[in-house]
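We modelled each protein-ligand pair independently. The example shown here corresponds to the zinc ion entry; the chain sequence is given first, followed by the ligand as SMILES.
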Amino acid sequence: MTKVSVFLPSKCFLLCDLCVSALNLLLGYRTEKPRAKGLRIMSQSYETVIGLEVHVQLTTNTKIFCGCSKDFGQATNSQTCPVCLGLPGALPVLNQQVVELAIKTGLATNCQIAPRSIFARKNYFYPDLPKGYQISQYEYPLAEHGHLNVHTANGPKSFRITRAHLEEDTGKLTHINDDGEPYSLVDLNRAGVPLLEIVSEPDMHSVADVRAYSRELRLLLRWIGVTSGDMEKGTMRFEANVSMRPCDSEELGTRVEIKNLNSFKAMERAILYELEKQSETLQKGGKVKQQTLGWNDNESRTFSQRTKEEANDYRYFPEPDLPPLVVDADWLESIRAEMPELPDVVRARYSQTYHLSAEDIERLMEDRSAAQYFEYCLAAASDLNPRVIVNWMLTDLYAWLNQKELAVNKLALSPQAFTELVGFVEDGTVNQTTAKEVLVEMLESGKGAAAIIDKKGLRQISNTDVITSLVREVLEEIVREGRSPKIEPQRRRERKE
Ligand SMILES: [Zn+2]
């Protein structure tokens, strides 16, 4: 039986002869003439191949080679100095914290840290690059040969990381078109902001792989505190290399590079668009053109920026104003000693020790301060069931934080106070509904649970002797006043309400 494939963006589909006949009919071909002019079903299955380059802004206070602040959203060109403006004679000085954050990233992504790495000049002219070159590590990067383990919909996968190298960011151009008079404005506040470029091997074979890798990488980098990962402020930007190759081939197909993708959604849409385009080109027997593309999110299409430069075009050479970056064993070990427990280890611990659900674990892991808060709660109230604590955190506490647009690290409520309230629900002092109200009052007023419960008389009575004696008292009062103890149906309804 002949098997024929049809492309869909992320998969190869194999069809039997019957399906092919049906498809050919739909497409207007007769099965006995598969090579007729026009669209035809190819006899070749193709595989999607994607690699990602991720530019990460590091969480320093100052730029990579000068003391300028890298605060986002300041007045244009206000955060500049002779070094980041590229004025003649100004010399760069490497920011030590930048190197330490990059090493942390290298360690967290299982890379080898180079004892000696070199900064180079990448020469090209562009209005947002005042020096006429960008300082970037090239031949000898700080970190290499790593991998990232990721949980995908199809089970665990490991994607190789080629390298992570340091470089400076460029300025920002704003293109204006005033009644057909186009011009561009340059803001150099971003010039010299420290970037770490993390380059993966082309190990991803679907948009789902890209999604899993990029999200896990962001979670990890935020977890170890090397970036805010704030996509809206451009602190993480993606470039995707996309190609297709015959399923039985080891050789990579011609790739396109889609640059400056600023959100997960834009990245996924751009990759899907490009895969559909390539698939169509190959289906028609055409060839994919190697080029660099931009993505227009509003129009949902890629556009050609330029044909791809080769490394030679940049005339890389070692930066003469910076010495080699030397990382000795003591420095490396002192950074390794500061590394927090990594997400995968924490996930395993939460699952095995506390029996939290996978979904709850992922919600806690989104923000390391939330996971830390949870652990402080456990330390404050070791007798409480961890799952009950998490449940209160992820529902009522998160609801209040979301409403106030606050992160967990801005929470004034101490883990001791929070778990005291959870303890009151567990031992029956208050019921769930009352506790929800008490929690809001605690968050708003800063008062403790016990004080609020006592002041408002919210304590739930669960002692049956006390309840029996109260009921007796009420009944005796009714009899004493000559009322009938029988409760009318109408009144019973009122009580229910
Ligand atoms: Zn500066």
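The chain is about 35% helix and 25% strand.
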